[in-house]
Specification:
Blueprint: H1 2-5, H2 11-24, H3 30-34, H4 39-45, H5 54-86, H6 97-101, H7 107-140, H8 146-163, H9 172-189, H10 193-214
Helix pairs in contact: 2-7, 5-9, 5-10, 7-8, 7-9, 7-10, 8-9, 9-10
């Protein structure tokens, strides 16, 4: 939408528009309320309740990232194995469009890109995938053995999360691995906010490294 309607405006303005549209997607939370679900029920089901203290949020955020690291590493390994099996060179481009924009962007655009990557995307993606989608699958499989319900919710939400990203096929296992790590914290803490914090820090560090190496 921004690409179509953003002609004649600066790159920074278009990125801020993208951030606004990203946050606007959370209006979908109104639908369960319209259907009669109470806000406290929706908040519990989607994991939107925050930990009771800032300290608890920070150490849970660190734990969330530590949970994601081994699964991400396994995903990278699976991606390399997939690359070896497929042998198609054009599948190797795993960069995100934000990373491609960053090195040549001006200061205002860089600030907007960091906001989108480190705030907008983590808040919305954790709410949608580890909150609503994961919580919904857990509810629908509640009668199953607990380990099977958790596994199904993790695999389903992680697969959808990885598939919607634009980095290509080889990045899907690594992105799914990150998602599984965040799902573990979601299940353990009952909240998406530790994952939001870990997700935001991860994206910010990746952009900062990209800027340092290519800026």
């Amino acid at each position: 939408v921004v690409g179509r309607l953003g002609g004649g405006t600066s790159d920074a303005a278009n990125v801020w528009k993208s951030a606004a549209i990203t946050f606007a997607s959370l209006l979908a939370l109104a639908w369960p309320l319209v259907r009669g679900l109470r806000w406290h029920e929706l908040r519990a089901a989607a994991g939107l309740g925050a930990p009771h203290s800032a300290w608890r949020l920070f150490w849970m955020g660190g734990a969330s990232y530590l949970c994601a690291i081994p699964f991400m590493a396994l995903g990278v390994l699976l991606g390399q194995l997939l690359d070896g099996m497929v042998g198609d060179r054009h599948l190797q481009d795993m960069s995100h469009p934000v990373q491609d924009m960053l090195p040549g962007a001006d200061a205002a655009t860089r600030l907007a890109l960091f906001f989108v990557a480190s705030v907008a995307a983590p808040v919305v993606e954790e709410t949608v995938f580890r909150g609503l989608l994961y919580g919904h699958v857990r509810q629908q499989t509640w009668a199953w053995p607990r380990w099977l319900s958790i596994t199904m919710a993790m695999l389903f939400s992680a697969s959808v999360f990885a598939a919607i990203h634009p980095q290509g096929v080889l990045a899907v296992p690594a992105l799914a691995g990150v998602s599984i790590g965040f799902c573990i914290t979601r299940e353990w803490s009952g909240s998406v906010w530790p994952g939001v914090l870990a997700h935001g820090v991860h994206n910010g560090v990746m952009l900062a490294l990209n800027l340092l190496l290519n800026g």
